[in-house]
Every structure is written in C-alpha cells, then in structure tokens.
What we know:
Blueprint: E1 5-6, H1 13-18, E2 22-23, H2 26-32, E3 35-38, H3 52-57, E4 63-66, H4 75-83, E5 88-91
Amino acid sequence: RTCTKVYDPWLPPSILIDNGVEPASLDEVLSQSDFVFVVASVTSENQGFLGADSFAKMRKGAAFILLSRAGVVDFAALMAAVKSGHIVAASDVFPE
C-alpha cells in the first residue's frame, strides 16, 4: 500500500486529507520516504531550510526532487549528500 505523506506548514490538515494525502511532519516525510518532492515557494521563513541535517535524515538511496525554487535548499549540503552516495537528486532549478 502506498501512502502519500505531505508536509505543508501553511495548509490545515483537513485540506490535505480532503485531497487524499496524509499530513505529516517534515522529519516524518524525510525519514520515511523513498521519494521527496519539493514544491515550495521561497519565503523569508524557509530560505535554505533544507540543509545537511535534512538530507542526513533521508533514507540511504532516497531520491530528492526539487521542482520549486532553489532558495529553499542549501545547495552545497545537497551536493555533499549526493556526492557521498547517501541520496540521489534531480532539480530543474539552480541557485544561479
């Protein structure tokens, strides 16, 4: 059984549930997912919020797919996690 867990600090859990996904903490999504899709806009509150600690929480071999704004990710930490072989990553956005 596949369960789609979603972390969204701005939407109430009821909206997530009504749309067929399970609300979860960021730590839960990172540590329990084989694929992590990031589709967040950059705000003053989430600039670079996904860093080395976040990537270390991910399962070995998990895929990190960045589809939003590069500013939400510490790219140096992302590249270090990929180079170490801990995770794989794909992105259609870059810091420059």
